[in-house]
Amino acid sequence: MPRTSQLERTATPCPGPPWTIARPHPGRPHLPLRPLWLCRVCAAPWPCPVARLALRQGFAHDQIGLSIYLCTALHEAAADLYGLNPHDGPDPAALFTRFLGWARPRHLR
């Protein structure tokens, strides 16, 4: 049986938040295309603006849960992107900003 990560189990489209919110295309959630970590819908680096909005709304009352989810995504993205290009791997600071920098509460920015 193939091993699935926590992110793959939680990022599949489901009837509840966060993916049912802020979908500009019904039935097409803005999920990451792995191992490139681009949005499957708009091809922007994931999390794209629509995914960020959906995540923020879906985790509106669970900031810690959002942070844990995004840390998991960051960890898996770093491994995937490094695997694609080990000689010139992803910049850790840029990945942190991309995955976690936007998710801090506004009063802490």
- Classify the secondary structure makeup into a structural class: mainly alpha
Q: What's the number of extended β-strand segments?
A: 2
**Gyration radius, rounded:** 14 Å
- Proportion of strand residues: under 5%
Strands of the largest sheet, in order across it?
Answer: 1-2
Globular, elongated, flat, extended or rod-shaped: what is the shape?
A: globular
Q: How far apart, in Å, are the first and last alpha carbons?
A: 43 Å
User: Low-confidence stretches at least 5 residues in length (pLDDT < 50)?
Assistant: 9-22
- Biggest sheet, in brief? 2 strands, antiparallel
**Annotation field: number of helices:** 4
**Mean pLDDT metric:** 82
Walk me through what this model shows:
This protein has 4 helices and 2 strands; from the N terminus they run αββααα. It is mainly alpha-helical and 109 residues long. The chain has a two-stranded antiparallel ribbon. A hairpin with a 4-residue loop joins strand 1 (32-33) and strand 2. The chain is globular, with a radius of gyration of 14 Å. Mean pLDDT is 82; it is low at 9-22.
